[in-house]
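ESCALATION

Customer reports they have been waiting on this structure for their group meeting. Please prioritize. Original submission:
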Amino acid sequence: MFLKRILYYLNPATLFGKSSGNSSLRFMHGINRISILLFLFCLTVMLVRAMTR
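Update from on-call: job pushed to the front of the queue and completed.
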C-alpha cells in the first residue's frame, strides 16, 4: 500500500495532471518529487559503488 502510493506520486503521467489552483502547493510537490528522485538515484549509485569494490 505504501509503495503503491509512492509510485503513484512519482509517476510522470501524474506529474503533469490536473491539480489544484494553488501554485505554492504545486511547486512544493514538484520540489518534493525532485528530492525523492535524487535521493533514490544517490542510493543506487552508493549501492553500485559498494558492490563493485
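Sent to customer with the following note: Residues 43 and 49 are 10 Å apart (CA to CA).
Escalation resolved.
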